[in-house]
Amino acid sequence: MFIPHGAVILAVDGGKMQLWRNSGRDSAPVLELLRKRRLRNPRTSVMGGDAPGRSFQSVGPRRGAHQPADRHQRREDIFGEQALDLAAEVAGDNPLVLIAPPHMLGRLRAHRGKSGAPAAAEIAKDLAGYSGDRIARFLSGWRPATHQG
Questions:
Q1: What's the mean pLDDT in 38-66?
Q2: Rounded to whole angstroms, how far apart are CA atoms 21 and 28?
């Protein structure tokens, strides 16, 4: 894959974020680390929580319980959304490449629609803990999937 010179690459998962800029050529990216963050996110059980909510039918004796909130997952989702906002701000008019695990990529797509940050490419892979050299090698060999209908 060709990564344009000046393109910003965001590699994020639920707990790690790395923001890179391609300072090399389109065909031979050299990634320069711009920002790196980690989220300290304890398990939901450690954060505590309320008992699941209850609902009652307006007619009859039926009632049910609501699913308890997964605070750990919610914090990971917010972390990813904040990382995307930062990447869009840093990228400006330059292309933005998103690299995230499938669940996080889905969250970023939904959030990107709200923030208006266009992406040059989306890669469903967890590379947030990798070095810049390793990510650059991956990007050099990566080819977008082609859909045949």
A1: 64
A2: 13
The residue among 139, 138, 95 whose CA lies nearest residue 4 is 95
DSSP secondary-structure letter at 134? Answer: H
Tokens of 89: 């701000």
Q: Could you say which of 3.10.310.10, 3.30.420.60, 3.90.79.10, 3.40.50.720 is the CATH number of the domain covering 8-41+71-141?
A: 3.30.420.60
What tens digit of pLDDT does each residue of 57-93 get? 667 677 666 566 667 788 888 899 999 999 999 998 8
Separation between Cα atoms, residue 2 and residue 14, nearest integer Å? 27
With H, G, I as helix, E, B as strand and everything else as coil, classify residue 31: strand
